[in-house]
Amino acid sequence: MTSQKLLEWLNKAIAREMQVSIQYMWQHVQWAGVEHYAVSDEFKSVAVTEMKHAEKIAERLWYLGGVPTTKPTSILVGGELWEMVDNNIKAEMEAIEMYKQIICDAEKEGDTTTAFIFREILEDEEEHHDFFTSLKEGKKPVKRK
Predict the structure, then answer these.
(1) How far apart are CA 95 and CA 41, in angstroms?
(2) How far are the Cα atoms of 40, 55, 80, 88, 95 from residue 13, in angstroms, in the given order?
(3) What b/e string do you get for 37-73 counting C-beta neighbours within 10 Å, with b at 16 or more?
(4) Of 33, 52, 66, 77, whose CB neighbour count within 10 A is largest?
(5) The domain 4-137 is classified under which CATH number: 3.40.50.2300, 1.20.1260.10, 3.30.70.270, 3.40.50.150?
(6) Helices 112-137 & 34-63, crossing angle to 10 degrees?
């Protein structure tokens, strides 16, 4: 039996994934200037990946007997280019920390499937964090896949 705490963690993760999916997609749309052409497609790609994460987590939550949220956490699009990137770096760090905790809690409960799902998602989140921090530092992000 899955604990209420783990079910709540999964719903928080869904809300966060919906938040960044919308946030990154709107940034993709609103990003302007020369830099737009270099990174616009990556913003869109990351947004789509985040929505797929929300779907995967929602399917798991539903399987475990929970009801997925339909409300994203607070969306921070940002106005200036680097404000957007700073918001995204923060969002990815929050996700990385949250997902490490979810993995730990799932393992404590013997829920290897949830732990496995979040290990895969965590890998993506670390790549997203690398993209945004590299963008801020003016470096080329490392593609791992």
Answers:
(1) 22
(2) 25, 11, 27, 16, 8
(3) eebeebbbebbebbbebbebbbebbeebebebbeebb
(4) 66
(5) 1.20.1260.10
(6) 170
Tokens of 42: 């990556």
Q: Is 72 within 8 Å of 22 (Cβ atoms)?
A: yes
DSSP 13-70: HHHHHHHHHHHHHHHHHH--SHHHHHHHHHHHHHHHHHHHHHHHHHHHHHHTT-----
How many whole angstroms from its chain centre is CA 76?
Answer: 13
Question: Domain locations in the chain?
Answer: 4-137
Length of the chain: 145
pLDDT averages per 10-residue partition of the chain, 145 residues: 96 98 93 74 94 98 98 90 91 98 98 98 98 84 51
pLDDT value of residue 81 = 80
**Structure tokens, 143:** 């593609």
pTM summary value: 0.91
